[in-house]
Design goal:
- The protein has 226 residues and is mainly α.
- It folds into two domains: 153 residues, Transmembrane di-heme cytochromes, Chain C (Fumarate Reductase Cytochrome B subunit, Up-down Bundle), CATH 1.20.950; 38 residues, no CATH class.
- The protein has eleven helices and two strands.
- A two-stranded antiparallel ribbon has the order 1-2.
- α2 crosses α5 and α5 runs antiparallel to α7.
- The longest helix has 31 residues.
- The protein is elongated, with a radius of gyration of 21 Å.
- The two termini are 25 Å apart.
């Protein structure tokens, strides 16, 4: 794939496809799950062809989500590991929230907020999947008791609420930070964006010449493209 001259590749096409499959599955699971969660939300089942179809497709979408999110973990877990920089960044979270990042400690490819979303979902997706298996009556009802299924429903519901909250944070951050959606849709960012939001990552790209601007396009020129 060809990217505009002078830009930095942040996400490959494969990574973006993987991300949007995961996001699409999560939205479908949220809508179908909410339709079964409370009678007031039962109308959402019509999006899937009715109650029976909703109950039939919901767990299979969950299987796809697990596989898809596993792909994200394989691709990004190294960049998502916690470091001391993340603690320093969190100490300046008040500036980040108002989008004033001058003076905020430098971070690498992902900041602490992004890492929180990544690892929270890495925990919640398996919890939702495993608890979902217990209440997947078509295939597993003969292996579980009613009491076990009730506990699983509670865990599944609480896990879903947690995952929805994390998803809302993820979407809000993506919309709030200008240029983030371009990275997720088209795969690239400007040097100025990288310098402002992920300065340590940007410096490494400049030093190595890897997937970044030409080596002589230093931080001074990046400031001009903010």
């Amino acid at each position: 794939m060809t990217y505009p001259s002078g830009t930095i590749v942040r996400y490959s096409a494969a990574s973006r496809i993987n991300h949007w499959i995961t996001g699409g599955c999560f939205v479908l699971l949220t809508l179908s799950g909410l339709s079964m969660f409370h009678p007031l939300l039962a109308f959402l089942a019509e999006l899937f062809g009715g109650g029976q179809w909703t109950r039939a497709v919901h767990p299979w979408i969950g299987v796809v989500l697990l596989i898809s999110y596993s792909g994200l973990i394989i691709q990004f877990w190294r960049d998502e590991m916690w470091t001391r920089d993340d603690l320093a960044w969190m100490g300046a979270i008040n500036r980040v929230l108002v989008n004033e990042e001058e003076g905020v400690p430098e971070v690498a490819r992902f900041n602490a907020g992004q890492k929180f979303v990544f690892w929270a979902m890495a925990l919640l997706v398996p919890v939702l999947f495993c608890s979902g298996l217990v209440i997947w009556e078509v295939y597993f009802s003969s292996y579980t008791t009613i009491e076990q299924q009730r506990v699983a429903v509670l865990i599944h519901s609480l896990g879903a609420i947690g995952a929805i909250i994390v998803w809302i944070i993820h979407v809000y951050a993506g919309l709030w930070i200008r240029g983030s959606m371009r990275a997720m849709l088209h795969g690239y960012v400007t040097p100025g964006w990288a310098y402002r939001h992920h300065r340590k990552w940007f410096r490494r790209l400049v030093e190595t010449g890897s997937r970044g601007p030409v080596p002589n396009a230093g931080a001074a020129s990046a400031r001009n493209t903010l």
